[in-house]
Amino acid sequence: MFAKDLAKLIRTLATLEPDEAPIVSCYVDLTGRPQIDEQRARVLGHAVGAAWQEPFEEALDRIRAYIARCLRPDAKGLAIFARGSPNPMFLPIQSLQPLPDRLVVNSTPDMIDLLKFEDHSESYLAVRVGGNAANVFEIRLGAITRPIWNRYEAFRSRFVRQRARVTYGRGGPEDDVIEELTALLNALVESQAPEAVILEGSGKTGRRVAGALREGLAPSPRLRSPSVREVQAGLRTAAAEFEPAPDSMETLRRQLLLDSLAAAGTQATMDALMERQLDVVFMTPSYRPDPGWVCRACWNITVAPEKPPACSDCGKADVIGFDIREDMLRAAETLGCGVEQADDGGLVGRLGGVGALLRHSEPGVRCLEVV
Q1: Interatomic CA distance for residues 193 and 195, integer angstroms
Q2: Is the pLDDT of residue 223 over 80?
Q3: Quick one: pLDDT at residue 67?
């Protein structure tokens, strides 16, 4: 796709007004099997709610039909932004570069992965400290999107993705929380090579976290100070969309729709547990999953009714069983995670009886001692 065409599409998406129907943002890596993640689509089908259900299904059907019939043989990545009735839209973008598989439902397009193709695109990490949590955001701006960021506050959240929410008590973070946040930021800096890490916060907690992060962060490229102030000025507005809902179940639903800090179902929750990502676990009274099987050689976990003959990851036969429900509760207590009971007939019940809010979206250190 020519740069001029991509710039025009980015401007269209960046200034698209919300409608009563949601926008499905679908990214597909065409170097593998060209299809949407149907398991993820089922999770979204439960999370969208009655008002968005019909337009969501309509948009998904159009996406599936396009993938089945309209792909170019040289395309390696696909981004589709679709909205169902009553005001339908459909905007497909085929790329010669691979794109990560991702499926998001929101009132506005999810553009971060698309912006990586923009010329002169710059990535920032912003840490916003306040209340009882430190939130980490990825911000992506460039020649096309920076004027929109500067002029239109309502559109800023489209260039922002939440990467972490590290919680602590009202008295401020303990030393281990600051160490966790610093380690997480170092991992993000190493993987994304941002132009700058921006620290925003006030009060005693903000100054303490900012000081510890400045000392603990690995060296990274420095950005011109006017640009830093420019991003800081809009961070509070952009981050408003990511503030947690007063109700924790609604927060879980929102995070599931955004493919962000949430997990749904047994396998996803266990994977997050092993990576120390859990913040709050939701479990129904009737939750009784199949047995879990863990490989003692590589700590890969499989959920299955019968013992597998060998580990699906490393191929070794050193596999032992464990009670997923009991071990999940014990591990949550060990890690200091909250545990909330959910209704069997509610969202968590429809998702298999268990789900979780996550502290971060990047892999951490495997928690070997909890299995």
Answers
A1: 7
A2: no
A3: 96
Q: What's 118's DSSP letter?
A: S
Beta strand extents in the chain (DSSP E only)? 23-29, 77-83, 89-95, 102-106, 122-130, 133-141, 160-167, 196-201, 262-264, 278-283, 292-295, 301-303, 319-322, 338-341, 354-358
> How many angstroms separate the CA atoms of 149 and 144, rounded?
10
Whole-angstrom distance, CA of residue 235 vs CA of residue 183: 22
Residue 236 pLDDT:
85
Lowest-pLDDT range of 107-111, 166-170, 282-286 = 166-170
Q: Using alpha carbons only, what angle is made at residue 158 by residues 26 and 8, rounded to the nearest 5 degrees?
A: 75
Which residue has 């990576």 as its token pair? 275
Whether residue 221 contacts residue 193, with contact meaning beta carbons closer than 8 Å, is answered with yes
**DSSP run (H or E) holding 175:** helix 175-192
Q: What is the pLDDT of residues 58-96, one digit of tens each?
A: 999 999 999 999 999 999 999 999 999 999 999 999 988
Longest Cα separation, the chain? 60
Q: b/e for 101-112, b at 16 or more Cβ within 10 A? A: bbbbbbbbbbbb
- In this structure, the number of other CB atoms found within 10 A of the CB of residue 141 comes to 26
Give the list of residues 6+ apart from residue 261 with CB closer than 8 angstroms, or none. Answer: 162, 164, 165, 255, 279, 357, 358, 359, 360, 361
Residue 189 parent element (H or E) = helix 175-192
- For 147, the enclosing helix (H) or strand (E) is helix 146-151
In this prediction, residues 245-250 reach a mean pLDDT of 91
pTM attached to this predicted model: 0.89
Domains recognised in the chain with CATH numbers? 17-107 (3.30.960.10), 122-242 (3.30.420), 248-370 (3.30.1330.30)
pLDDT (tens digit per residue) in 340-367: 999 999 999 999 999 999 999 876 554 4
